[in-house]
């Protein structure tokens, strides 16, 4: 079979492999080969071939019960992509920090938690929150995590919080929407109460700018 004849078959295999990865990623309890075959609408033999190739590259693994789960190779790719995400978000974060006079941040989902991927502090304030890149917190606590949860529910508006992660800290955040494969929010955190209406508009605009930069 020549190269031209193999091209459609190769594209189909790639498309099926990507669909399988997305399917496993969206199923927290993992999948059996039979379940995967049924959901993909293909035969078990085809799934076994896909699993063999993806397991060999560390993208999938089988747990003790034989269920398919994401492999460490996916985490490796995600970590390699994080600096690119941060770089794309920095211009919008810088503008937001200067506008709001508060520490701006991009928070992404990793391992079921919110992780501060990029942080920018304002240049003109005497005091501001020192928020470390890599800081983790539950999605249910703090404006950044709750904005991500709101985005999952299709709600784009800003979310505010007071003292949920640190006593005396005030936060406003909005989800980053429309970027395939990314769950994230853009927000600010300050030591004094924030005008939620005004800062919320700034945060939402910054989230839109980040989404545009990352598409």
Account of the protein in words:
This protein has six helices and eight strands, in the order H-H-H-E-E-H-E-E-E-H-E-E-E-H. The strands form two sheets. It has a six-stranded antiparallel beta sheet. It has a two-stranded antiparallel ribbon with strand order 1-2. A hairpin with a 7-residue loop joins strand 6 and strand 7. It has helices at 3-25, 33-40, 44-56, 72-100, 143-152, 196-214; strands at residues 60-62, 68-70, 103-110, 113-120, 136-138, 159-162, 170-176, 184-190. The chain is elongated. With 215 residues, the protein is α+β, with helices and mostly antiparallel strands.
Could you give the topology of this structure?
Blueprint: H1 3-25, H2 33-40, H3 44-56, E1 60-62, E2 68-70, H4 72-100, E3 103-110, E4 113-120, E5 136-138, H5 143-152, E6 159-162, E7 170-176, E8 184-190, H6 196-214
Helix pairs in contact: 1-3, 2-3, 4-6
Largest sheet: 6 strands, antiparallel
Which blocks of ≥5 consecutive residues have pLDDT under 50?
none
Shape: elongated
Mean pLDDT: 91
SS summary, helix count = 6
Order of helices and strands: HHHEEHEEEHEEEH
What percent of the residues sit in helical stretches (DSSP H or I)?
A: 40-55%
Assembly form of the protein: single chain
Task: Provide the structure class.
Answer: alpha+beta
Distance between the termini: 37 Å
């Amino acid at each position: 079979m020549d190269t031209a004849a193999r091209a459609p078959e190769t594209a189909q295999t790639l498309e099926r492999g990507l669909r399988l990865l997305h399917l496993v990623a969206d199923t927290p309890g993992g999948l059996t080969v039979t379940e995967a075959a049924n959901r993909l609408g293909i035969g078990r033999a085809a799934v076994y071939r896909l699993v063999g190739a993806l397991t060999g590259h560390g993208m999938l693994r089988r747990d003790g019960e034989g269920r398919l789960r994401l492999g460490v190779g996916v985490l490796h790719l995600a970590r390699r992509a994080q600096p690119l995400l941060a770089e794309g978000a920095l211009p919008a974060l810088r503008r937001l920090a200067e506008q709001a006079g508060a520490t701006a941040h991009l928070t992404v989902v990793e391992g079921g938690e919110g992780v501060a991927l990029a942080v920018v502090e304002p240049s003109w304030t005497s005091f501001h929150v020192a928020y470390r890149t890599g800081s983790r917190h539950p999605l249910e606590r703090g404006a950044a995590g709750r904005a991500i949860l709101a985005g999952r529910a299709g709600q784009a508006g800003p979310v505010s919080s007071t003292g949920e992660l640190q006593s005396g800290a005030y936060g406003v955040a909005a989800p980053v929407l429309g970027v395939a494969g990314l769950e994230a929010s853009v927000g600010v955190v300050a030591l004094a109460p924030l005008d939620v209406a005004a800062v919320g508009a700034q945060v939402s605009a910054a989230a839109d700018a980040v989404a545009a930069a990352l598409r």
